[in-house]
Amino acid sequence: MKSFGWLRELAGFILEANCPLCQRSTPHELCQDCQRRILRCQLPEEDRLQAGQPPVFAWGSYRGALKQAIAVLKYHNQPQVARPLAQQLASSWLAGNPPAPLTVVPIPIHVRKRQQRGYNQADLLAKHFCEFTRQPLALEGLERSQETVAQFTLSPAKREQNLARAFSLGKAFCNQPPSTPVLLLDDIYTTGATARSAAQTLRRHGIRVDGIAVVARTSRD
Ligand SMILES: [Zn+2]
User: Where are the domains of the chain?
Assistant: First the structure.
């Protein structure tokens, strides 16, 4: 098969793309060096689960290469970055939580934002998370009902007000509520205002929310 060596070389050349974090060529979504840098942002096991309403399970700390990876996923049209991040979240979640069927619901973004971006990063993360964990997925469990002002411009109290009515029940649950409790899923957890508002919306409709899983959490203070 020696004569087909050139073909393999050509295929390899086509399949190699640039790592979106460091621009070096790699056959993977992220190069090995950047994968290692991301792993350094992983939270110690005892810090991943945080009590709250709803409780939050975070894979990493929102800094360094992990912060950079989330930024390219959201703002630089690199949807393929969702898979390795979701895989990390999924394997630590499986290791750290008792096995229980939970319907995974990604936190939606406003439809206009999704059109601009081409996708909702939480949808992609949730899809890959469910591929790894085999949990049922409800992509349209929630709907973003109102365009919210950019959260980072607001004080914590204003954030809550801004988000109080940000969600409504999505198409997936309107006719048929889920048969299991819900696990919300998002890329980042900051103040928890978004998660609280999403959970309250589901609870108002009698749907139990067991927690939220996120790729990264900002440090507490
Ligand atoms: Zn890289």
Answer: 1-39, 45-217
Overall CATH class of domain 45-217: alpha beta
Q: What is the pTM of this model?
A: 0.88
How many angstroms does the Cα of residue 21 sit away from the middle of ligand 1?
5
- 187 CA distance to ligand 1 centroid (A)? 20
Give the model confidence (pLDDT) of 52-106 as tens digits: 889 999 999 999 999 999 999 999 999 999 999 999 999 999 999 888 999 999 9
Give distance in angstroms: CA of 216 to centre of ligand 1.
19
**What secondary structure does DSSP assign to 71-127, as a single string?**
HHHHHS--GGGHHHHHHHHHHHHHHHS-----EEEEPP--HHHHHHHSS-HHHHHHH
